[in-house]
Write a structure and sequence with these properties.
about 35% helix, Ubiquitin-like (UB roll), homodimer, 11 helices, eight-stranded mixed sheet, L-amino peptidase D-ALA esterase/amidase, amino-acid biosynthesis (chains A, B), six-stranded mixed sheet, about 400 residues, alpha+beta, globular
Chain lengths: ~400, ~400
C-alpha cells in the first residue's frame, strides 16, 4: 500500500503512551500546498484539535496533518486549544510552512492536558523520518492507533487521460473497546488536481456512504475527524465531469473499506453485520431505519445468539419516524425471505440459525415499497465479550 | 395490596403457555360502567389488541380489561384483529355487557395466531373466580407476567372530603430478557369520580413522569399499553381542583412505582440507575439528555464496571440536539462532584468506584444553567448477563 505522489508520512513512538515502544505519533505531509477538506464529529462536546482544525478547512494551501494517540486533548479548556495550536506550530517550524496550513487530531484519554515533552521531541523526529515508501505509510497508520488491533489502510488507482491517480487512506477506530469513546480518525490523500470546494464536496459524499454508515453503539465521539487532501502531483490535467465521477467512486470505495475495517476490528464482536434498506422514498428514511436496526441492543444480541429474530428487526423498523405499517416491510436474512405481508414467511429456522452461527458476515435486507432510495450500513453484534471489555476498562 | 371499591379481578393458568401451571390470563372488572383512558406504544408495528383497544378509549362506559400472556397477537394480520375482538366478546358475554366496553392486551411471542381453545375455557373460569380481595388482585398481577420474576403492584390512598379514594395498579415488564421485545403493560384503577377526559389527561400526565421515564435498551415494543379506569365507587363527590391535584400525585406515584419496579426486575442487571437532569430550558430537552444517557451502551457498561466514567456521560450529553457546550455541564455521581467548568473535578476515584460497586442504586445528576425544567429517568446497567440472556433466547 503506497501514498499518492507528492505525499510523505511517518509514524513513531514518542512516549505519550505508558508503554514507551507503542507508536503514538503520525505525520502526513504534502510536498506542495494542497487543497483539503474535513468532516468532524457533530458532538457539541468536542476536542481542542477539532476546534482548531475546523477553522482551517476547506483550504487550498494545506501542507500537513499531525496526529497523536494516547491523549485526546478533549475537555481541556483554553489550555487544550493552545496545546493543539502549539502542535501545529512545531510541525510548521520543522517544515518551514505556516502553522495555519497544518491540521491536527488527537485521540486517547480525555480530560488530561497534552504532555508537551514527548511531543516536542517526537515531531522533529517524525519530520526526520518522513518517507514516501510503503513502510512510512504503514508507520503513519500505526501512530494513530489506540485500541485497534490492526492498522487500517486502503488504496485505489484510477486511470484518467493516460495518467494514474491514486487515492490512499488510513483510519483508526475499534469502536467496541474505545477507552472513553469510539473515536474514529481518517486521513485520505490523492494526487488528483482538485480545488478546496471539490475536496469538500467529494469528501462529504464519501463520508455519507462510509463513515456515516458504520455504528457500533451509536455514540459519536468528541474527536471524530476525516480529512481529504488533494495535491495534484499526479500531473493529471483538470478532470472532466466523467473523470471526477471515477475519482469519486474510488474515494467512496477507499472510505467504505476503511469504515468497514473499523467494524471488522471491533474487539468482542462475533459478527460483521451489513444492513441494506431499499425502496425508501428518501435517503434519510432509509438511513434512519438502518441506523435504528444497527443500534438496537435486542437485534444485536439476537445476532450474537445466531437467532434470525424477525420480530426485533421489524419492530425496530416500526419505531422509527418513517411512516409505514407492518405490511410494508419485506425482510431477508442472508438471502432467505423471513417476513412479508405482515407475517413471518415459511423458512427453515435451524438452517438460518446455523448459517448465522457458522459465518462471520450477516446480511439483513429490508425492502420497502415507497421509492428508489437505498442505504447500506455496517455494524457488529453485541456479545458478552463486548460488555466485559467495556466494563473492565476504567478511567 | 387491594383493589379500589367496585373493582374485582382474577388471574389463572388457562394453558396458552407451554407450562400448563403458569398463569397466563388476567381479568379486571368494574361493577359499574366507568371512565377510562389508554396510552399505547408509538411503534407503528403494533399488536392487534392495541388496534382494537385504541378505538375504545377514552370512554365513559367501560367495564373490563382482559389480558393474556404467552402470545402477543402481533404481526397476525386480519385474523389477529378478529381474535382480539373475539376475546373481548367472550368477556362481554360472560359479564352481560357490550364488547365495545371491554379492553384487551396480549403479551408474549409475536407472529403466531392466538390459540382460541385455552382462552375459550379460560375466560369463563376467570369470570367465575373474580374477587375483590388481595389474593384476587395478586392473581391478576400474575396472569400478565412473561419473563417477570415478581408480580408488580402499587397502591396509594387519598383522603378527600372525608372520603377515602384508592388508586391501585399492576404492571408487567422485565425488559432485559423480554422474549421478543420489552413489552410493558399496566392497568391502574381508582374509585375516584372522573369523566373520560379527566382520565385521559391524568393518565398522560402520570405516564409522562413514569413509564415514559424508564428505558432499558430504548426499544419500544409492539404491545406497550397503560390503562386508567375510574368508576366513582368511593362515593366521593366531584373533586375540587385541589383534590384532583392530590389524586394526580397519587396516580403519578403509583405509575412511578410500577415503572421503577420494571427496571428493578430487569434480569441480568446489577445496578438500578436514576438519572436526574435539571436546569433545562424545556422539559423535552431534559428528557432527550436523560434518555440519551440512559440508552448509551458505553455509559451502561461503565456502570456495570463500577467506573465513574464522566467522559462517556458528558459526551452522551453533547451528542443530543440540545444546544450546549462542555462548560455548561455539571455532573455529580452518587452526590460527588465529578465534572464542572469543562474539566473533571478533584475527587477520590477509588471511593466513587467502590460506592458504585457496593450499592445497587446509582444516581447520575446533570445540572445545566438554562432554566428550571427537571426530568428524572430510570434505567439499568448493561452486563454480560444481559447479553447472555438476550442472546440465548431464540424464537
Amino acid at each position: 500500500m503506497i501514498l499518492p505522489q507528492g505525499f510523505r508520512s511517518a509514524g513513531l513512538a514518542c512516549g505519550i503512551k505508558e508503554k514507551k515502544t507503542t507508536f503514538d505519533l503520525s505525520l502526513f505531509v504534502s510536498d506542495v500546498p494542497c487543497a483539503g477538506a474535513g468532516v468532524f464529529t457533530k458532538n457539541q462536546v468536542c476536542g481542542a484539535p477539532v476546534k482548531v482544525s475546523r477553522e482551517r478547512v476547506p483550504g487550498d494551501s494545506l501542507r500537513a496533518v499531525v496526529i497523536n494517540s494516547g491523549n485526546a486533548n478533549a475537555c481541556t479548556g483554553e489550555r487544550g486549544i493552545e496545546d493543539a495550536k502549539w502542535m501545529t506550530g512545531l510541525v510548521a517550524d520543522g517544515l518551514a510552512v505556516a502553522a495555519e496550513d497544518v491540521l491536527v487530531c488527537s485521540t486517547g484519554i480525555i480530560g488530561r492536558f497534552l504532555p508537551r515533552t514527548p511531543i516536542e521531541a517526537g515531531i522533529p523526529a517524525a519530520i526526520e523520518q518522513l518517507g514516501a515508501d510503503s513502510e512510512a505509510f504503514l508507520n503513519a497508520a500505526r501512530g494513530m492507533m489506540t485500541t485497534d488491533t490492526v492498522p487500517k489502510q486502503a488504496m485505489r488507482v484510477v486511470n484518467v487521460g493516460g495518467q494514474e491517480i491514486r487515492v490512499s487512506g488510513v483510519a483508526k477506530g475499534a469502536a467496541m473497546i474505545a477507552p472513553n469513546m469510539a473515536t474514529m480518525l481518517s486521513v485520505i490523500m490523492t494526487d488528483a488536481p482538485l480545488d478546496a470546494a471539490q475536496t469538500d464536496q467529494m469528501l462529504r459524499h464519501a463520508v455519507d456512504r462510509s463513515f456515516n454508515c458504520v455504528s457500533v453503539e451509536g455514540h459519536t465521539s468528541t474527536s471524530d475527524t476525516v480529512f481529504l487532501l488533494a495535491n495534484g502531483a499526479s500531473g493529471a490535467e483538470a478532470l472532466s465531469e466523467a473523470e471526477l465521477g471515477q475519482l469519486q467512486t474510488a474515494l467512496d470505495e477507499v472510505a467504505m473499506e476503511l469504515g468497514q475495517a473499523i467494524i471488522r476490528d471491533a474487539e468482542g464482536a462475533d459478527h460483521f453485520v451489513t444492513i441494506e434498506v431499499s425502496g425508501a422514498a428518501e435517503r434519510a428514511d432509509a438511513m434512519e431505519i438502518a441506523r435504528t436496526i444497527a443500534n438496537d441492543a435486542l437485534v444485536k444480541t439476537a445476532i450474537a445468539g445466531s437467532d434470525p429474530n424477525w420480530g426485533r428487526i421489524v419492530s425496530a423498523t416500526g419505531r422509527t419516524s418513517v411512516k409505514l405499517n407492518e405490511r410494508d416491510i419485506v425482510l431477508h436474512i442472508n438471502g432467505t425471505l423471513i417476513y412479508t405481508e405482515g407475517r413471518p414467511a415459511e423458512y427453515n429456522e435451524q438452517a438460518i440459525s446455523d448459517g448465522i452461527q457458522q459465518n462471520r458476515d450477516v446480511l439483513i435486507q429490508i425492502q420497502l415499497p415507497f421509492g428508489e432510495e437505498t442505504v447500506v450500513f455496517w455494524t457488529s453484534d453485541l456479545t458478552q465479550e463486548y460488555v466485559r471489555l467495556n466494563s473492565e476498562y476504567t478511567t
